[in-house]
From TrEMBL:
GO biological process: mitochondrial respiratory chain complex I assembly
Superkingdom: Eukaryota
InterPro entries with a match to the protein in the record: NDUFAF4
Pfam families attached to this UniProt entry: UPF0240
Species of origin: Crotophaga sulcirostris
A Gene Ontology term for the protein's cellular component: mitochondrion
Name this polypeptide is given: NADH dehydrogenase [ubiquinone] 1 alpha subcomplex assembly factor 4
Amino acid sequence: MGGRLARVFRTFNVENRARREISKEKPTPAPRHPGARLDQLADHPEIQEEIYRKDDRLLTLLKDVYVESKDPPGRVKDGGGEHLPCKQEEKRLTKLGHLGDLDVKKVPKGKISIVEALTLLNNHKLHPQIWTAEKIAVEYSLELKEVNSLLEFFIPFAVKEFPKETRKAI
């Protein structure tokens, strides 16, 4: 609705406004700076003569200059020379969960896949005395500090179903 109203005001009396704008007299350009005029050179022939005169002293100095250039030796770019050498990451096989084909097969040491993270969080929640932070760190090749942070800040969801008679009471 607002677009239609705006269009009506925008197109109101367009032809007359366009004719009025076209028929206006064009503004006169601003005057040029007096130092930028080329016609002043024609008034002073000594400047013209100085421009076109050859200076023999400068020509002899220019002839004495000798430039010898050499291209740097060509280097073969193999792609690896431009970057710093990186440490080859050690990889470990993942503990495959129930999503075997969809899960990642190899993970760098010190990292875990999402399926592994959910599995270890769930194991710790169900059996905290068996799945301690130290055992998880050894099992998944993680640092103990990171495992403690993971267990502290990430908690898997718990689904609770209420019996029908208590639903009405709630």
